[in-house]
Write a structure and sequence with these properties.
Length: 282
């Protein structure tokens, strides 16, 4: 059940980032609560029931053009799931604010009962009974990110053109380097969003599947995606693979290089992983 609970929390965060608050509460009991009593801000309090929670979330996210929770790790502990989070907010004037926090999601019989926010990971782990000695045995955060699963979810979001969900995987100043295919480098979330829109706009139908994924260590991964799509006004489907070499910072991507030649991409990924290993001295 603990892994099931992790997936429920993951889906809820993804829905929150889309501001689909109904979906975020889909697996919650009717009298679920969001406990913000540990907050140091004006939102301190406990919000009980779906209506109260949705109003709170609307008030919290409303002033921002984007308000994204980036989950860095999930630690199941009995009926609880501890989540380390980075909240990134972009104001209407384009100013970005970032804050680290943690939450404990509490379940009963597979239903989400309570979200309790804490100032940091240590407080959250203490709350679920993990003392200092027990915490010393845990990997440093973020350490439980399943990069392959994260890429698969990103590909699924890309196909449904949910670019807000796709961008939660990337750092704010992340870059897509398409120069190996003769294209430019796209830097920052807005540039990536425009790239994704331009990529998908010509197609009325599109499918993508992650066919190959390798974590080469030292923050480098290699993947191959097969795309199949139908152009507007066309009857046939166009199919092609492309490869990506990603550089990660913890649980998020800071750079991707896109290749049309899979063998070239694999060689570049292995070379980059080796270079990073040598530079780290490990």
């Amino acid at each position: 059940m603990s892994q099931d609970n992790v997936e429920i929390v993951r889906r809820a965060i993804e829905a929150f980032n889309r501001r689909d608050f109904d979906a975020a509460l889909r697996d919650a009991v009717p009298d679920a609560a969001v406990d913000m009593s540990q907050s140091r801000g004006p939102d301190a309090g406990i919000y009980v029931g779906r209506d109260a929670i949705q109003r709170f979330w609307e008030d919290m996210t409303g002033p921002f053009e984007r308000h994204t929770l980036m989950a860095e790790e999930f630690i199941p502990r009995g009926e609880h799931v501890v989540v380390s989070l980075t909240a990134r907010m972009t104001g209407r004037g384009g100013i970005e604010v970032e804050a680290r926090t943690a939450t404990v999601a509490t379940f009963a019989d597979g239903r989400l009962m309570r979200w309790t926010m804490y100032q940091d990971r240590t407080e959250a782990l203490n709350a679920v009974g993990l003392d200092t000695d027990a915490q010393a045995g845990l990997p440093e955060a973020p350490a439980t990110v399943d990069r392959e699963a994260a890429i698969r979810r990103s590909v699924e979001a890309f196909v449904r053109r949910d670019f807000e969900a796709v961008l939660t995987l990337y750092l704010p100043d992340a870059a897509w380097d398409t120069s190996p295919t003769g294209g430019p480098v796209f830097e920052g979330r807005e540039a990536l969003r425009r790239l994704f829109e331009e990529w998908t706009d010509p197609y009325v139908e599109m499918e993508q599947e992650l066919e190959v994924f390798s974590d080469l260590g030292n923050g480098v991964t290699f993947g191959v995606v097969a795309q199949r799509a139908r152009l507007a006004g066309g009857e046939g489907w166009v199919s092609f693979p492309y490869a990506g070499v990603a550089v990660w910072a913890g649980g998020h991507i800071e750079q991707v290089a896109i290749y049309a030649d899979v063998a070239e991409a694999r060689a570049a990924a292995e070379r980059l992983a080796g270079e990073r290993q040598r530079s780290s001295g490990s």
